[in-house]
Amino acid sequence: MVDEPPLEQVFRQRWGYVLASLIGFLGDVDLAEEAAQDAFAVATERWPRDGVPTNPGTRLVSTARNRAIDRIRRERTFAAKAQLLAAEPHEEPMAPTTFPDERLELIFMCCHPALSVESQVALTLRTLGGLTTDEIARAFVVPEPTMSQRLTRAKRKIAAAAIPFRVPPDHLLPDRLVAVLAVVYLVFNEGYSASPTRGDLADEAIRLGRALAELMPDESEVHGLLALMLLLDARRDARFDDGEIVLLADQDRSLWDATQIAQGRAALDRALAMHGHGPYVVQAAIASLHADESRDWAEIAALYHELSRLTDSPVVELSRAVAVAETEGTDAGLAIVDGLSLDNYRYMHSTRAELLRRLGRTTEARAALERAREMTHDEPERRLLDRKLAELGSD
């Protein structure tokens, strides 16, 4: 007797498939999301009683399309589309392709060049990654209303321009690679940087990274991204202790996954052998140095300087400031931090607080920590900041 897959596993694996199928027929992301949610709600009610169907994805698509037809009929609009939707779904509605992973295929579909790269990434995270608008806003370091407006504009553009959702031919895949890499890394980062309960997102991103390396083996940035994710994720078990954050310098290295570190370094070596020097390769090189027993801060600072040149990102400059503080002195690091326009970024305030603490400027350090605490919604991070505030004591 073959065990039926758990419902949550079916939902996680099939959500992107169902949604992409509906978007392809409807050309309307909002309507597709509503119909998909209806189908999953029906499955949640019926499948525990009736059993999971043999082809759960096809059944979900069929249910969602029927729900979409009902919506269209009720609203007495989209009559032509309703006729199209009335046809029974085929067993394999998606044409076979060379993609080694279905979800990766769907990400390439959503990263349509008619949209801005930011909109491609945000929309894909919302639809296929299942991230909330708030989670995506935090990943982009923008307020939630700003991200909500950005997603709405992207959906309207898809509907107004009738942008087709289909897998691009092989020769056009590199045109979408920048956005696809960004999507995979943001999914990973959301799982890695948040509480341990989102480790499933990190696992999913690494799985997508491996599939991407299989699909595009000659792209150095693909191997760089996979290396970066493996090297960071290798520290997962050491990053929390009873739900409390453990900083890198204080982590128990025996809990690091040595196999994963070796795999990450092998992927980095492969990227470097291709003469890769893009942002993901550089970040992977930094992560590899952080995995050494004795960290080479001068090399780390030099790599952050290169990464800053490539990305022109103030967040990268913040990381470079930490490395500069280790090599050139705390004042030099603080000077970089104080020149950044990152007032809405909580890690800027916590980093600044640490540098001020080292300089003995306790009152200013406390104010910066309190500012960081006001901005975080993550409970483990808030408790870490509380501990640091307590260590500073009172004046």
Describe this structure as you would to a colleague.
With 395 residues, the chain is an all-alpha fold. Helix content is 70%, strand content 1%. It has helices at residues 7-26, 29-50, 56-75, 79-85, 102-110, 117-127, 133-140, 144-161, 173-193, 199-215, 220-233, 258-273, 279-290, 297-311, 314-328, 330-338, 346-358, 362-375, 379-392; strands spanning 240-241, 244-245. The protein has a two-stranded antiparallel ribbon. Helix 15 (314-328) runs antiparallel to helix 16 and helix 17 (346-358) runs antiparallel to helix 18. It is globular, with a radius of gyration of 23 Å. The N and C termini lie far apart (69 Å).
Topology (elements, then pairings):
Blueprint lengths: L6 H20 L2 H22 L5 H20 L3 H7 L16 H9 L6 H11 L5 H8 L3 H18 L11 H21 L5 H17 L4 H14 L6 E2 L2 E2 L12 H16 L5 H12 L6 H15 L2 H15 L1 H9 L7 H13 L3 H14 L3 H14 L3
Antiparallel strand pairs: 1-2
If you average the pLDDT, what whole number results?
A: 83
Annotation, overall tally of beta strands:
2
Gyration radius over CA: 23 Å
- The number of helical runs is 19
The strand line-up of the biggest sheet is: 1-2
SSE string:
HHHHHHHHHHHEEHHHHHHHH
Unreliable stretches covering 5 or more consecutive residues? none
How much of the sequence lies in strands comes to under 5%
Return the structural class: mainly alpha
Largest β sheet strand count, sense and barrel closure: 2 strands, antiparallel
Distance between the termini: 69 Å
Share in helix: 55-70%
Per the principal axes of the C-alpha atoms, what is the gross shape?
A: globular
